Amino acid sequence: MTPLTEFQREIILNEEDKQNYFWVQDDVHLAHAVSPLFASFQIPAMTKGTKTAFENLKMPLRQFMMKLADGRLYQATLPHEGDMPSRIREHQELVGTLFPIQKQRLMDSVEHIFSPFYRQLDAYRSQTATLAEAKQRVEELFAFYEKAWQLHFEIVMPRSGHSMALEEMYARLTNESDATAVYECLSGVMNKTLETDRELWKLAVQVKQSAVLEGIFTGFPTEEIVSQLGKQEEGRAFLTDLQAFLEVYGYRSPNSHEFLDETWIENPNQVLYMVSAYLQKEYDFEKEYAQIVQKREEKLLETLAKMPEGEGKQAFIQLHQWALDAWGLDEDHHFYIDAMLPAKSRLFLLRVGEMLVEANAVEAPNDIFFLYYDELLDVLSKPTLVSQTIERRKQEHEENKQKNVPPVYGTPPEQVPDDPILERVFGIKTPDVNEQEKHFSGYAASQGQYTGVVKVVRGPEDFSKIQAGDVLVCKTTTPPWTVLFSVVGAVVTDAGGILSHAGTVAREYRVPSVVGTKVATSVLRDGDIVTVDGTSGVVHFGKQ
């Protein structure tokens, strides 16, 4: 086995790390195995970026430390080392000042920091450069990754505090035992994920209005649609509209956090499949969205009617309005940072890979994703053939994808603080399966009850299994999965809490959902008949 370099030792989990800290695999955001190059960028960016961000926010946490094991990213949470009560008060006072400007902080960062850098990466792809210049640009990207993730957490973390403040005020003023009901007052807020889905739906409407287009979409496999569209005048006009869509919304990939995956703008087949999904049933995005907005407004009126008149009620109204203004932040930051940064980086790095192919250092441009960052810099400094290393890493990556990795490493702290924010996002319930009565539980993320046929989806490669009315069962979801929510009858996940992506989007689409079950993908199989009770958080199974 090749000895690890100093850089690799810094990012790979070792036995000493396991003795010193408690490590959790984040199956909500990073359930998949990642490539060595992506890990090389993401791990230092998260570790160093959170340290700066948490200090700037005066958080009771010092940082998130990230490490790599079996291709998965593990996270250790380090608490603030000073006086904790004082730190918490300082953090709350600071975050309170940010409530009114959360969305604006994101958009300012997008306008002045992220978009200019993305334009620079795009320019690099079309410019002639030497390997030395390419190395410098890779180093620029590495440095930007740390800045990006610092900004990511400075933008996102105040929203969690805002949510908890809203829950606390709701419970106090209404005397309701379930404070999470307040989130029904926050559905129906347009964001970049819903906006993307709306534009996909519009493309589907365009297909339905043309016998030529509909014939192509229903008569040919997804992989052949582009070539068939190119043979017809209406098809070529549709391809022009498709390209316009991709230029705005195409900088994302199925897993988001990865360099290996093709982006939508590279492979339009991913988008064409989603357009086809909208053709499966009668669906009107605008009508459905208007109904969700109306339901939210009705819920808010009901909530306010329960509250006594006075300063408390007025404070709730103000806090709710700030929350409503910023509620799209979760999906919007993912669009501009979590998804777009790896997508833009991938396209730039593929150009670097092309240069290394020309220098006879690698056989294919995407081979460089199987190198660690320090190895890539070495090859750019002194081009030498690294085929054996790449082939070994490719094999390791395939093996990692099949592994059932430990959910944690190390010893849990003796006293785990009750953190409602972590529960809302990540879900911390232990598995609860009743084999005798055939049911298991999770978090009640989206109300309603639905009985249907299970389809277990491991990744986007399984999307084609989904038929209208199926019950989507998966480990977790990310924004590129959202189109499925308009097709399925219910959603059940292994990971996440009610503020995870799956929980939030299920409420937007009024799809019954139970999340954070820990066991759904291991208990259920394709073809099972289940009843998903999104109101009580229980899934009943046992029928074929």
From TrEMBL:
Residues 392-414 are annotated as: Disordered. InterPro entries: PEP-util_enz_mobile_dom, PEP_Utilizing_Enz, Phosphohistidine_dom_sf. Residues 392-402 have a biased composition (Basic and acidic residues). Signal peptide: none annotated. SUPFAM superfamilies: Phosphohistidine domain. It comes from the Bacteria. Residues 467-537 form the PEP-utilising enzyme mobile domain. This is PEP-utilizing protein.
